[in-house]
């Protein structure tokens, strides 16, 4: 998802940089952080291959001791990962979601979480996507990002920027 990768996203590095203060605030306040790592198991996959650099969690977001890392093989972070059970066993009441491929993994995870009754906030400025094409029409990444976040906001989640979420976290 990052420059030079097999599925480079627009502004992926900027999304990571915007997320860092929020991740730091969660850690400083002892709030739980769960990392989701995608490892491809589908025959013919060309990225997220096991033990490849592209499947590694970005170094700036590397898990700290005590932070959970769940491996997923599908776009949804809930499918086949035990995420729902983990969160419920810890008494978590709501989720803050950030990540890569807004139009795929973020969207799918948020909608699956909604189906499981999770209240969610999507960190809209700490997600990234890419341009898409459909029926011969090109849709630039900014339009894809805006459309997917707009579709999630209000029904499936609340979409907020990092600065607004930082204001909501108790000191």
Structure overview:
- The mean pLDDT is 95.
- The longest helix is centred in the first third of the chain and has 17 residues.
- The chain has 5 helices and 7 strands; from the N terminus they run H-E-E-H-E-H-E-E-E-H-E-H.
- Helix content is 33%, strand content 20%.
- Helix 1 packs parallel to helix 5 and helix 3 packs parallel to helix 4.
- The protein is globular.
- It has 171 residues and is α/β, with parallel strands linked by helices.
- The chain has a 3-stranded parallel beta sheet with strand order 3-4-7. It has a two-stranded parallel ribbon with strand order 1-2.
- The N and C termini lie far apart (33 Å).
How far is the N terminus from the C terminus?
33 Å
Shape: globular
Tally of strands: 7
Strand content: 15-25%
Using the CA coordinates, give the radius of gyration: 16 Å
- Taking strands numbered 1, 2, ... along the chain, how are they ordered across the largest sheet? 3-4-7
Structural classification: alpha/beta
Mean pLDDT: 95
